[in-house]
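Email to the structure team, subject: Pseudouridine synthase model.

Hi all, the expression group asked for a predicted structure before they design truncation constructs. Nothing fancy, just the tokens so they can compare against earlier work. One-line instruction: predict Pseudouridine synthase, return tokens.
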Amino acid sequence: MERIQKVIAQAGIASRRKAEQLIQEGKVTVNGKVVKELGMKVGPNDQIEVSGVPVEKEEPVYYLLYKPRGVISAVSDDKGRKTVVDLFPFVEKRIYPVGRLDYDTSGLLLLTNDGDFANALMHPKYEIEKTYVAKVKGIPSRELMRQLERGVMLEDGKTAPAKAKMISMDRRKQTSIIELTIHEGRNRQVRRMFEAIGMPVIKLKREAYGFLTLHGVNTGDFRELTPHEVKQLRNMALNKNR
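Reply from the structure team: attached below.
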């Protein structure tokens, strides 16, 4: 027996938090009866519907994708642009991205049909560290690098402390390649941080997500996470969210 919101999340319909909202709105039925009790437990033989659509419990799947530039981090796009889900033509389960990468940003992105897992990783206060490599205009001074590490004031508040490392610089072209590790998940955060110190991003790639890297994966390709990797990610999220 499992809590109904957990079953809905594991079916890939919504995160657990969204599932709780749907329950409270009276949009969930169990065996034909509307349920508004969040703690209710259901078994494998119970018939669950969300907004009239039967919940079919799927086996959870977890993928690591090397997202190319020019692809939307979404399940669908009203402008007809290619989405990350389009890169999984032979996966029949209803997967969706954990968080997002900008259209013009490449790199490591996780996809799953486990809403509970996705929700834990995207906890708004304690997100897992993500490492980016950015090619930017200009060559930063030591003070600007320290500013990135201490936190940069953006329109939605100061960023949390980060790790910044100079990889290389081209004095002739006046460009730099900088590695930046953050644990927040604000919209276009890395690009905005560099813009705030007067160094616009030319190219951006997410190299790592926690302990996961792109090693062995080509642009546009993906691989399944191992059970051990999934367990490690769960433990990281649980430890951070305590």
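The two ends are 25 Å apart (CA to CA). The chain has three domains: 2-54, 62-124+212-240, 130-209. Ping us if the truncation boundaries need rechecking.
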